[in-house]
Amino acid sequence: AKMRKYLLLRSLDPSQLPTLRELTTTEICKVWASACRYIRSQLLQKRAVEIGVGTFAVVPALATVGQDKVLPVERPVFEPCRFLKKFYNLKCAKTKIDGETPPVPLDFEWIGADIRFRPEIVERCIHETLLFFVGTLYDNKEVEFSFM
């Protein structure tokens, strides 16, 4: 049900993003930099993190070293939610995230404490950024969404 709020049936109206209009670009970047630190900290503990539009996780992979050595490694991946992929007709690389352990959600309290923002502001900023992101998908625009 939480995912459904990111399935847009019409173009995004700026009134749906009041928090993003109130915050400066620097403040928005601060929120996302901290969210990335939280995601990284969870991945290092082998936990997947669900952010509303998909899940970050580490998956086993093989790395070729030199001529003939292959080493098992773990690589970070982002798997968009299957509803999102289907709804927006996204073509994504196939990744299989181990579903044994349920992913943890973003911890808005942790992120807020990290950057001295109220957790409600963090949550609204992240939610509206994700709305803006799927709005670009709806409008069939190119968008680059990077995680540091």
From TrEMBL:
Transmembrane segments: none annotated. InterPro entries: CCD81, HU-CCDC81. This is CCD81 protein. Residues 13-91 form the CCDC81 HU domain. GO terms for cellular component: microtubule organizing center. It comes from Aegotheles bennettii.
